[in-house]
Amino acid sequence: MGDEQPNNVNLDAPRWDQSTYWGRAKHFFTTTNPLNVLCSDSELDRAKEIVNKYRRTGDASGLTLNQLWDAKSIYDSAFHPDTGEKMWLIGRMSAQVPMNMVITGCMLTFYKTTKEVVFWQWFNQSFNAIVNYTNRSGGSDISNKQLLTSYALATGGALGTALGLNRLTKAMPPLIGRCVPFVAVAAANCVNIPMMRRQEIQNGVPVTDENGNKLGESKIAAKRGITQVVLSRIGMASPGMLLPPLLMNYLEQKGTLARFPFIAAPLQVGLCGLFLTFATPMCCALFPQRSSIAVSSLEPELQERISKLPSPPSVVYYNKGL
User: Fold this and answer.
1) Angstrom distance (rounded) from CA 101 to CA 277
2) How high is the pLDDT of residue 25?
3) Of the candidates 19, 21, 105, 5, which has an alpha carbon nearest to the alpha carbon of residue 60?
4) Rounded Cα–Cα distance for residues 247 and 232 (Å)
5) Per residue in 56-66, pLDDT tens?
């Protein structure tokens, strides 16, 4: 089937059905594929040429359907969807797994001293700031001041949580201390994402009918979408930050880490990479990108405006973000 010739392919929509969980998961497995980081500049430019040519002319001469979609996945992994500019390497979605596996593995390994906690929590939030900046909307009104404010608050929240919990857990079993980095990362997500999308909370996000016709803006939909994104981000971090500590605690009790202390960092980095490879796309897919909300759950004034339409819908849609 993949060897057929492309015919009226809509490259602006995902390849798989986004109304099902597995359709969304397949889409994000492709989008976050870490192998795309290895693509050379010439391969990226070739993929961009194929995609832009097909969008302009519908011509995919010499390409099968699979080859066209492969070019699209490479293009999406490196070029900004709004501006078409090539994104910074470490800010690309395809860099999420390799970058996060190193950062997360080191946060789990080096968590006992204040210097270690400060460095790795700062490094993690700096990386998150680069990702947020690289993937900001092309028409976004996010200012450098807002980016810096979000970065400072998220870093402060992560550091405050990690250092405070480290002090509280000193007298507790070692396993509790190993889980402190996860709590700090979760706390930072709860600050960073709402701050980055503060304007949506203040002004609302566009809501549309099933045909994409804009009906207004909703702050309630914005808050629901942001909550879903926060839960997805925490879910992505959970397997890689909670399961390795269980194994490391077991190895510590058996004396393995005392005999081979050098295995701690590479083992945890490798485990984090394994878990993130699956957790990242599968948690991105938890909620539909085009989410729905009942009109009865919207602001009263928006409900009233929609009720006056000739054929008022009972459900409206909005983009939840990533």
Assistant:
1) 9
2) 93
3) 5
4) 24
5) 888 777 888 88
